[in-house]
Design brief:
The protein is α/β, with parallel strands linked by helices and 248 residues long. Helix content is 38%, strand content 27%. It contains eight helices and nine strands.
């Protein structure tokens, strides 16, 4: 783990974190449905004893091949997944996770989901209402804002999710690949908004992405994850150069 500087304020401290999934084979499911018994399960460790710290105002990028544990780690930091071992300390900071498929109720409208998401982030009803028009305008969904979210495309879902997180600002922002979703116009708008948000040196940002150019441009440090562990963490150009070589 990074050496602690007592004069430095940290937003995130992750210590010896392990997160496990239980997987069930399809054969086991078929067999046990007939017998009316519990299916045989096998534990898979997605995050394997990870430790690191993120300073207040720092932008940390996380990359690695599919299945390396990046998104699981982000959801554990956000509190969506519980640690099987180890700990995550946010030092009292508010946090939001921006990821496709997280946090929306499909039967509710976009407008209703804005209110629900804002309340779940810890804002009051009055605060969410104050920002409602700005969120709707940024999302640019037109009449779909009053349609159920189940009718949305993945791009529309992404636009609404990004707009809520970008406007209802928290101390810590976790971003999982959503900058690469949506039409080109919205990609550009969201990228510019991200740059303005993270230029605030009091906000801490963790970005999971396969877009190495984005990580190199935006991040102070980059973490390379491999098989649930940290392969390397450090200066973006150095880490990403090694990662590119590894992936050839």
């Amino acid at each position: 783990m990074d050496k602690i500087d007592n004069n430095q304020e940290y937003s995130i401290t992750v210590k010896d974190l392990k997160v496990r999934y239980k997987s069930v084979s399809s054969y086991s499911i078929k067999k046990n449905l007939l017998r009316m018994k519990g299916a045989e399960t096998k534990a898979f460790e997605a995050v394997r004893g990870v430790s690191f710290e993120v300073k207040k105002g720092e932008i940390l990028g996380i990359t690695g091949k599919n299945g390396s544990g990046k998104s699981t780690l982000l959801r554990a930091i956000a509190g969506i997944f519980s640690a099987d071992e180890g700990s995550v300390d946010l030092h009292g900071h508010s946090i939001s996770l921006l990821a496709i498929g997280v946090g929306f109720k499909s039967e509710l409208t976009g407008r209703e989901n804005i209110m629900l998401s804002g309340l779940l982030l810890g804002f009051t009803e009055a605060q969410v209402k104050e920002h409602m028009d700005e969120i709707i305008e940024f999302a640019g969904l037109g009449d779909f804002i009053d349609m159920p979210v189940r009718t949305y495309s993945s791009g529309m879902h992404s636009k609404l999710a990004f707009s809520i997180t970008a406007v209802m600002e928290t101390d810590i922002m976790l971003i999982d690949e959503v900058l690469s979703v949506g039409d080109e116009k919205f990609k550009k708008k969201s990228y510019e908004k991200m740059k303005s948000l993270i230029s605030d040196k009091t906000r801490t940002v963790v970005i999971v992405s396969h877009n190495l150019k984005t990580l190199e441009e935006l991040c102070d440090r980059v973490m390379w994850m491999h098989d649930g562990q940290i392969k390397k963490i450090g200066e973006p150009k150095e880490v990403l150069k090694e990662y590119r070589e590894f992936m050839k």
